[in-house]
Amino acid sequence: MNMPAISILTIDGPSGTGKGTLMQLLAEQLGWHTLDSGALYRVLGLAATRQGLELDAAEALTLLAAALPLAFNAGRVLLSDEDVSDAIRTEEAGMAASRVAAHPCVRSALLDWQRQFARAPGLVADGRDMGTVVFPHAQLKIFLDASPEIRAERRYKQLKEKGLNANLPQLIADIRERDARDRSRPVAPLCPADDAVCVDSTQMSRAEVLDCVLEEVRRVFPHAVARS
Asked: Which InterPro entries does the record associate with it (predicted)?
């Protein structure tokens, strides 16, 4: 793959670090497009579950991925015209996404689909292999991390605010399990790109993380105009 003709900023990292929020804030500041790659795998996991497919059935999952009736519209995620934006944000959907994403053939089936999101004036893409596999020549790569305990606490608060039941020890265990699976898979394991800027948000507020990354954006994309 040649160097991108447009500006590309990738944000990788484990679940619960705030990648999606950071992506949206940066895209609003810069006026760029977004790619939430995790939504692809979450939708695939949801679709597979609804069809009764085993999440270890790589061949069947690949066929489903190749013809996934997925669309993004005004910030909403549509599966066969059904709004599944909330359905794919459950803990179960996250675990299913991690399982289907472990299959190399599934990742390959979704690769070109993801790269089509790169459009002028620029793209902010978040996921787990955006900077290492999908956009290896992105001009700026961020790896956002935080301790499992902090990520679980953040998720716990989110669930409680929504009036949902949550068990903090179980959330910590689930996050550790997902981290281990994502980091150890044979293809596109979760890890920083060699040229990534690593940001540990464990002791940082959302505003502090945004300011930190914006400094890198100004350094790499000096002509990008941040909106007020």
From this structure: Cytidylate_kin (IPR003136), Cytidylate_kinase_dom (IPR011994), P-loop_NTPase (IPR027417)
Please tell me whether 80 is known to bind a ligand. no
- Confidence check: pLDDT of 4 > 60: no
Please check whether residue 106 is in contact with residue 100, taking contact to mean a CB–CB distance below 8 angstroms. Answer: yes
> Is 69 within the bounds of a domain?
yes
Any domain includes 184: yes
Q: What CATH number did the domain enclosing 167 receive? A: 3.40.50.300
Q: pLDDT for 35-93, tens place per residue?
A: 999 889 999 999 999 999 999 999 999 999 998 888 888 778 999 989 999 899 888 88
How many alpha carbons fall within 13 Å on the CB side of residue 164?
Answer: 13
To the question of whether residue 14 is assigned a binding role by annotation, the answer is yes
13 is in an annotated binding site: yes
Which of 192, 195, 210 is CA-nearest to residue 138? 195
Domain total for the chain? Answer: 1
Q: Range of 100's domain?
A: 7-220
Does residue 122 have a known ligand-binding role? no
Is residue 15 part of an annotated ligand binding site? yes
- Residue 104 labelled as part of a binding site: no
Annotated binding residue at 20? yes
The reply to whether 226 falls in a domain is no
In a domain, 176, yes or no: yes
